[in-house]
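Project standup — Tuesday

K.O.: blocked on the structure for the chain from last sprint. Re-posting the sequence here as requested.
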Amino acid sequence: MKFFQKPPKNNKFKLLTLCLLLIFFRVGAAREGVNVGAESAFTNLVPAEQVEQTAKQQYYQLLNEAKSNRALAASSHPLFLQVSAISRRLIPIAVTWNKRAQNWKWEVNVIGSNTVNAFCMPGGKIAVYSGLLQQLKLTDDEVAMVLGHEMTHAVREHARERMGKGEVTQGVAAVGGFVAAQVFGIDPRLTGMVARQGSELLLLKFSRQDETEADLIGMELAARAGYDPRAAITLWQKMSQMNGNSPPQWLSTHPAAQTRIKELENNLSRVMPLYQQARKNQGLP
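H.V.: unblocked you, prediction finished:
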């Protein structure tokens, strides 16, 4: 008598098919939203605390200059209230991309200037220029796309990444130190670079890959906060129409308008369900 019998071939095929389907759906359901790669290993070449401290110093210097020129928006100013309210909805979602960001002392300010610009420095220091809001007549949804984009630069630590890459490119970091930094963490011989590059944090240029990542994650952050991700498309259409062949400072290193719009459109289907769910959770249609 056989205690173990081979299952019929059709059952083996069904079992294999079931296993493959389970694996597929498990991987597919691992994360909703846009697909981006892991954080760059180059960030490990730069001490986060020093970069954030330097950013804080530069941020306050900028605010003091704006205040002395009576260009710093008061907490009762309509533009400040708009940016602050949107930021409060985005920050709890942004910090899920970076555990350390949960302990950042996030700050939001609006600076009166015709400059079409905005940024979020390491440590969560946000500034939006009134020119961006007024000249483009941005809706709340479009402002959310701007803030989501800039917050992504901070939580994905693009500044540290660029600074780390700059050190390696310039040959300051020896090959041995570079390998050690990736394997064991921060190489103390490289900490001096913060002093060399830190003074240029406000002028730091991100790569086009960083910008694309900020576009996509920023759109997701906004969608999860209940802002219409389709506004990312209208935002960049406005930017393109306003500037033509002369992009503003904020767009100087960004991908071409049509390229980024196409990338955003290709990812809308990934974030629209998040937006719809967020609206439902907020009791909105």
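K.O.: great, moving the ticket to review. The first strand starts at residue 107 and ends at 111. The radius of gyration is 23 Å.
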